[in-house]
Request: fold
Amino acid sequence: MKCPYCGHHDTQVKDSRPSEDGTTIKRRRHCSHCDARFTTLERVQLRELVVVKRDGTRKPFDRDKIMRSMLMATRKRPIQADALEQAVNRIVRELEHYGTDGADVPSPHIGEMVMDALRTLDQVAYIRYASVYRDFTEKGDFEAFVKHMDGGEER
Ligand SMILES: [Zn+2]
Reply:
């Protein structure tokens, strides 16, 4: 692993430890050239994910984007960072199995999956996210949506 500070190619692993749920490994590294220390994160990746936006454009999947949006939705809610991390892991793992032959993932599908994950984590966070995501600007829409959430009629 190249040193991010000086670009030196030879850095040494000083310490490795798995995350609590065992899905990632953090490695502390040291650059013998400039003495910098940094951390790398090792995570299983089953395949490269590509997202198709509504307008048909494609872009590489961005895990951090999911995490950011979930952090935003769960702000000040009593949710453990670990629980979020695991929820994102589950989403990514599921996306990696999306379709057959490594099909691209439609971006609305990701939004739906995030909503599903939030629904099981925290109702308030779920509503926050959903109201933004679906852009419920009209009162009627939102009411129909809440009804749907309560297990009522279809939206
Ligand atoms: Zn260095």
About this structure: The chain has two domains: 11-43, 50-149.
